[in-house]
């Protein structure tokens, strides 16, 4: 299943006994695979601080998860038809998500445990805000380049009425360097090609006989050249327009055509290079953001456990990976820990203790519980 549960329960005589009881209850029917979730001795602070943090951490939790999904969404977009490679690129500290989760260790360097809890929360918040800011800037630059390239490619592959004609014509299609003659390119709707071939020589007085050849055809239009006297160009354009023959403005210039091709090639190369750089950045910052995400979860477990179970701090945090029957696992946990809040009809939103809904609590059980979704992408969600 693409999720983990973090729960905590008060230490019995020792926290080891709490851990052993969980395993004894869940292993016989293979309800979950369990791991100890290591949270260091954090500074408790005042009750008011803890209550305030409940709300703040819930908001940061949602915020960080949203940024994670944006990072993954961009990775999916870049991979295009190679989305099956997404899983192998979602690494956290150079290991896969499951390994990081099951071997979680608090990062003392990033989040010093002796700092007051609000300070740690602020460190995480600023870190993720910076990732979001950088993502917006990088995404904007990449999207601008992608749009420019798409517009250029549309001009090279779209309708003959709009697309670039440089790739469709050759030097021999034109009369060049003539004092008196000019070659025009004319786009003809396909149903009218026979009319063009019959009429073009008579549209004006000074058209060179048999000078028109079909150069290209798509589903809607055909491209022809035609040679005439320069002094007759404006008259010819007007006569052609009346017959629904469209003269395209085009000057055969090899240097400009080569520059256009070079510009296209440069944009494609720039896009490929930016994709490589952006994808590497996304991988690094997915890891950074996921680390922050799990530390937020750890903070929430700590704060909620102290508020629920009181002082001195004495609880065991545990990571559960539900197997096939999560409903049965929930029933076993509720039964195990019902003594912690016997008045509660566990899990019912209507019975959540007063005030907790304002802190974003949508599920409430006798024990501390938080769910961690690891289905950050559309592809992962479909596979689940």
From TrEMBL:
Pfam families: V-ATPase_C. GO terms for cellular component: lysosomal membrane; vacuolar proton-transporting V-type ATPase, V1 domain. GO terms for molecular function: proton-transporting ATPase activity, rotational mechanism. The keyword Transit peptide does not apply. Keywords: Hydrogen ion transport, Ion transport, Transport. V-ATPase is a heteromultimeric enzyme made up of two complexes: the ATP-hydrolytic V1 complex and the proton translocation V0 complex. The V1 complex consists of three catalytic AB heterodimers that form a heterohexamer, three peripheral stalks each consisting of EG heterodimers, one central rotor including subunits D and F, and the regulatory subunits C and H. The proton translocation complex V0 consists of the proton transport subunit a, a ring of proteolipid subunits c9c'', rotary subunit d, subunits e and f, and two accessory subunits. Belongs to the V-ATPase C subunit family. Subunit of the V1 complex of vacuolar(H+)-ATPase (V-ATPase), a multisubunit enzyme composed of a peripheral complex (V1) that hydrolyzes ATP and a membrane integral complex (V0) that translocates protons. V-ATPase is responsible for acidifying and maintaining the pH of intracellular compartments and in some cell types, is targeted to the plasma membrane, where it is responsible for acidifying the extracellular environment. Subunit C is necessary for the assembly of the catalytic sector of the enzyme and is likely to have a specific function in its catalytic activity. This is V-type proton ATPase subunit C.
């Amino acid at each position: 299943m693409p999720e983990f549960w973090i729960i905590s329960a008060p230490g019995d005589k020792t926290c080891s006994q709490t851990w052993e009881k969980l395993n004894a209850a869940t292993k016989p029917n293979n309800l979950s695979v369990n791991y100890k979730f290591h949270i260091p001795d954090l500074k408790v602070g005042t009750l008011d601080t803890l209550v305030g943090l409940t709300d703040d951490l819930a908001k940061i939790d949602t915020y960080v998860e949203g940024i994670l999904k944006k990072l993954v969404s961009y990775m999916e977009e870049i991979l295009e038809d190679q989305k099956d490679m997404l899983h192998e690129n979602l690494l956290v500290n150079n290991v896969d998500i499951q390994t990081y989760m099951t071997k979680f260790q608090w990062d003392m360097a990033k989040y010093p445990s002796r700092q007051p809890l609000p300070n740690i929360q602020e460190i995480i918040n600023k870190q993720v805000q910076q990732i979001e800011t950088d993502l917006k800037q990088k995404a904007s630059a990449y999207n601008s380049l992608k749009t420019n390239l798409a517009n250029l490619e549309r001009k090279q592959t779209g309708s003959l009425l709009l697309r670039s004609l440089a790739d469709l014509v050759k030097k021999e299609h034109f009369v060049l360097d003539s004092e008196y003659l000019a070659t025009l390119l004319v786009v003809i709707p396909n149903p009218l090609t026979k009319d063009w071939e019959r009429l073009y020589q008579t549209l004006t007085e000074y058209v060179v006989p048999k000078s028109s050849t079909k150069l290209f055809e798509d589903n809607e239009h055909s491209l022809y050249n035609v040679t005439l006297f320069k002094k007759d160009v404006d008259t010819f354009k007007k006569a052609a327009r009346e017959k629904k023959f469209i003269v395209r403005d085009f000057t055969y210039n090899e240097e400009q055509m080569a520059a256009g091709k070079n510009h296209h090639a440069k944009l494609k190369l720039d896009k490929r290079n930016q994709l490589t750089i952006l994808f590497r950045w996304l991988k690094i910052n997915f890891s950074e953001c996921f680390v922050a995400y799990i530390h937020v979860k750890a903070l929430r477990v700590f704060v909620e456990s102290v508020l629920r179970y009181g002082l001195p701090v004495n609880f065991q945090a545990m990571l559960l990976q539900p197997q096939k029957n999560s409903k049965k696992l929930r029933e076993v946990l509720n039964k195990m820990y019902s003594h912690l809040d016997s008045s509660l009809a566990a899990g019912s939103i209507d019975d959540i203790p007063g005030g907790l809904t304002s802190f974003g609590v949508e599920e409430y059980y006798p024990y501390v519980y938080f769910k961690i979704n690891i289905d950050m992408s559309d592809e992962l969600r479909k596979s689940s």
